[in-house]
């Protein structure tokens, strides 16, 4: 189930001190494509890059509050 996997992904991110990521509608196709590549070809780089970018975006409110 996709929701469960995203919940577990966010749980692991938060356990490691990262904010949870929000998968926005405009990122959904890229997410599914990256996930498909990882599953069918074993190429995890696009998925890792996408999640990394989403984590960076999740930090933006914190940077704003901190004034950086």
- The assigned structural class equals mainly alpha
Quickly count the domains: 1
Rg is 13 Å
Reading the helices and strands in chain order gives HHH
Number of strands: 0
Poorly predicted spans: none
Output mean pLDDT.
Answer: 94
Categorize the overall geometry.
globular
How would you describe the overall organization of this protein?
With 68 residues, this protein is mainly alpha-helical. It has one domain. Helices cover 74% and strands 0% of the residues. The chain contains three helices and no strands. α2 (28-41) packs antiparallel against α3 (45-66). The longest helix has 22 residues, at 45-66. The chain starts with a helix and ends with a helix. The mean pLDDT is 94.
What is the compact description of this entry?
The chain is built from three helices and no strands.
Topology:
Elements: H1 2-15, H2 28-41, H3 45-66
Helix pairs in contact: 2-3
Membrane topology: Single-pass membrane protein
Subcellular location: Membrane
Main location: membrane
């Amino acid at each position: 189930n996709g929701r469960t996997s995203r919940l577990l992904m966010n749980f692991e991110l938060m356990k490691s001190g990262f904010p949870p990521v929000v998968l926005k509608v405009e990122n959904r196709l890229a997410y599914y494509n990256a996930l498909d590549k990882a599953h069918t070809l074993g190429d995890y780089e696009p998925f890792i890059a996408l999640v990394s970018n989403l984590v960076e975006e999740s930090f933006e409110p914190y940077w704003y509050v901190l004034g950086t």
